[in-house]
Amino acid sequence: MKSTIQFPRFDAELNTDVCDPMNNAELMLTLRLGFTQINPAAGAAEGTYHDYNRATAPTRKIIKWTDAAWTAWKENFVSTAQSFWTGKFWLVNDAGSFPFMARGGQTYIPNVWCRMKIVAQEGTATDNHHAIEVVRLHASESWFGSHERLYDSKDTNLVQKNTDSAGNRVMQRAHVHEVGHLLGLGHVDIGKAHCPASGNTNDAACYGIADDDMRSVMGSGMELRLEHAEPWREAIRAFSVAEAVMGIINPASLLLPLGRLMVGGNPLTAVWPAKMRRHYPRTPEEAAAGTLLTSPPRRAA
What we know:
The chain is α+β, with helices and mostly antiparallel strands and 301 residues long. Helix content is 21%, strand content 25%. It has one domain. The chain has six helices and 14 strands. The protein is elongated and about 70 Å long.
């Protein structure tokens, strides 16, 4: 079955129709982004715009969007950000949720493959999860103060954002970082002494002081980490609880208590640990033993 839960930041669809002894359930997070052009005033070909859209911030030269440039930018934004985030995580089903019966009568406990889709829409669409304004920078400008709801036309470029302790450049595509924020992720060093959660979490120190933190995509770099699977973990917990309480994901699972009982899972306390390597559905016995199958299982379907 396919079931959807709408969250404020995204829609989540769990697909268990794809489950078999070789394939896990799939969890798709969909971001509907409403894009709006920011153009020079009064229809001019060129103009200026303040960093961060703050009247006290410096201004940068901008130019008017053309239809072709606007379409190309949105297509590039969607394809590159989506390819970065989708299909990178697998969640280990420690709740014993969504058991299914394969041919031959064997019960399996699927794990969850995490996927992500971006839908580009007009800023006026009523079902946007996030509204994003975009300026088109003049060729003479190399930097603009953007944030998760205000981008510039060069934010999709790979540029240097920092320098590590060995003098190496730390590179990032800003829009990939900002999509992490749209999914609900914060900067890498939030909660540390130099970036308290109660302070300004956009301070430079929040992007990573240590080299390892700096290289995180939620710092100044492009590295994915296990903690970046948190939006999918949030979503799957909701599906797992709904399945346990009401059986709304897979009513047949109510007839398959063996899986849940042998795993001993509790959807309210399940961790759903993230991995960055594919693993395979398990039998209830394998799940109960904590076995994690990272190679195709040799068993009859």
